[in-house]
Sequence to fold (422 residues):
Amino acid sequence: MNFENSLSFAKGLDKKDPLRKFKSEFHHPGKSGKRFLYLCGNSLGLQPKSVKKFLSEELDDWAKLGVEAHFHAKRPWLYYHKFSKKALAGIVGAKPSEVIAMNQLTVNLHLMMTSFYQPTKQRFKIITEAGAFSSDQYAFESQIKLHNLNPDDALIELKPQNGEYYLRTEDILTAIKKHSRELSLVIFGGVQYYSGQFFDIKKITAATHQAGAYAGFDLAHAAGNIIVDLHKNEVDFAVWCGYKYLNSGPGSVAGAFVHEHHSNNPDLLRLAGWWGHQEKERFKMKKGFIPMPGVDGWQVSNFPVLSGAAHMASLGLFEKAGMKSLRKKSILLTGFLEFLLSDIVLFHDYFTIITPENPDERGCQLSLLMKKNGKKIFDRITKAGVIADWREPDVIRVAPVPMYNSFEEVFRFAEIFKKALE
Fold:
């Protein structure tokens, strides 16, 4: 599409937007009657208006039924993890039996690595991107140490080439091939949190399997943002959170995927808990763990119903909108933002966009590397009513989310940002 730098053009795109009705399904933060320009869904998604209804229903059932709500609530608590499977499968491209809402992201990462990182004397190395999200770094290091290994020897962190801001796919594939004989696990963020790069899941997974290792992904910045097709691409496992693009509230229940190649293997090592035990036998309290079929067998504790209710409210909107439609709008919305930013006269003097230009290599986030006065400029746009994200040492992350952001909002942001530069 040939974009135009005008408010009328932005409004025209909004009129043609088949998803524009979803904007009214969310609460939009503001102050003194003025709505903030919210472009921070990459950190915390907005609250769906239906959350209050879903939560109220669970609170009412708790009040009226007490413990009996496990069996007789509108959505019986005993089976709550099952209610989100269809929607989650649609979001991450999986079979319902391969996805589960449970725990928190890094807890799930540890659970998955317990199963899929079993180093031997020959195969003990992990490949990941340099500068992965800190929680992932801590998880990798501690898992390596649990096996009495040294992270300096076992962890390979790939950096972009000199003068570049994101990894080339061919460099990742070359590294996998180079270390193939010693490789145990390859794990990347689906979308790199700092640069906004979307890694080529299909190619990375295929190369990893050819090397005889497992492939996993942290989809914290990918789930609900881009199309990942986990089952089709034969990813071994993936984890994600629920509070970013999935709009399920701060600290909300997270999720995990295990491919059916593995999920029905009861002999695969895992950390066991009673909610992963065979449902019909769970309350007999007998010794001897027998895992539930599918990814359900990785559950440890009973489901957090209240945060799960908020999760259900948001997932209902994803089912109505559809990931293909959301992705189509996202490409246009982010492309429009990139066009407007590149049209700023002071563009090359003050900042550069470090997120890949190719829409197939990014989600809705653009990361702006500030060359000077970055924090000062960020404070200016914040004062002007923009909620974006500052990441040390020098990046402003901006994420126009297709579910609730508009083309007019993107235009307004570019105008505010331009004024802040001046």
